[in-house]
Design a protein that fits this description.
Elements (H helix, E strand, L loop, with lengths): L2 H11 L8 H4 L9 H8 L2 H7 L2 H10 L3 H6 L6 H29 L5 H6 L2 H15 L5 E7 L6 E7 H7 L4 H5 L19 E4 L5 E3 L5 E4 L7 E4 L5 E3 L2 H19 L1
Helix pairs in contact: 3-5, 9-10
Length: 257
């Protein structure tokens, strides 16, 4: 270790640089995953060049005795103080997420039985499920086969209901379709940004992953969707898929006999 460097830091080691009150609050512990990472942020190239020992540099940084930190008048918090601040920051972050979750639930209007009665069967079922979808407790995939409103082409596709709620600001207009008084021309139809889309007239087709589901196209018997949260795979045509598997098992059994 360089003697000149040690001569500069030894007087500092005799002092107490314990950080209290507002000085602790200045440290943003969220920027560091561990106390060691925080200590490393206090060490400069000059310190490592003279000390040639990372562990020693960390120990001196914890004491607030590094020459570079003394020059910058930077004080270092203890490991106990770091952990306390880390726990406080995590608790505040959790509280903020819970508040945001509560606000989102409050924004989801609960519809009256009379309002539900005015809706089409599909939109009625979606309205009932909407609060749970927005809160993340439920994931819903919708299959629609209908005619486009512009050209009258037959289209079909699978829609991630939760993804549509997040990406469409005026989804409420779909619920208004068919009501007396306030009339909406919007009809819920598949889009090219949904999980899957097919125009039966032009044969235009698209597949898109969403924030909730990953589209699996390797299955020879049809599309599958993998939930990104619980990783469960959904077969959108279970009877067909089951019948194929049953026939394959029967063929395998026949070959073995």
């Amino acid at each position: 270790i360089n003697a000149e460097y040690m001569g500069k830091i030894l007087p500092a080691m005799e002092e107490n640089f314990h950080v209290l009150g507002d000085m602790i609050a200045d440290v943003n512990v969220s920027d560091f995953e561990s106390y060691e990472q925080y200590l490393d942020s206090q060490i400069k190239k000059e310190d490592l060049a003279f000390l040639e020992d990372e562990a020693l540099a960390r120990a001196l940084a914890e004491l607030g005795s590094l020459h570079s930190t003394r020059q910058d008048k930077t004080l270092c918090i203890s490991k106990q103080e770091f952990e306390q601040l880390k726990a406080k920051a995590q608790a505040e972050s959790l509280g903020a997420r819970r508040t945001h979750h509560t606000q989102k639930q409050a924004q989801c209007r609960v519809r009256t039985p009379a309002e539900l009665e005015e809706m089409s069967p599909l939109m009625r079922e979606l309205a009932i499920r909407e609060p749970d979808v927005k809160s993340g407790r439920l994931a819903v995939i919708i299959f629609i086969r209908d005619y486009s409103q512009r050209k009258g082409h037959q289209i079909s596709g699978y829609i991630d209901f939760g993804h549509r709620l997040k990406t469409e600001d005026k989804f409420e207009l779909y619920y208004d379709l068919g009501r007396e008084g306030e009339h909406s021309a919007k009809k819920l139809l598949p889009k090219q940004t949904d999980l899957s889309f097919l125009n039966w007239k032009t044969q235009a087709m698209s597949i898109s992953h969403t924030s909730n589901f990953q589209v699996l196209t390797t299955n020879p018997y049809g599309l599958q969707f993998k939930n990104k949260r619980d990783r469960k795979v959904i077969n959108v045509d279970p009877p067909y898929y089951t019948s194929i598997l049953t026939r394959e098992r029967e063929r395998a059994r026949d070959r073995s006999t």
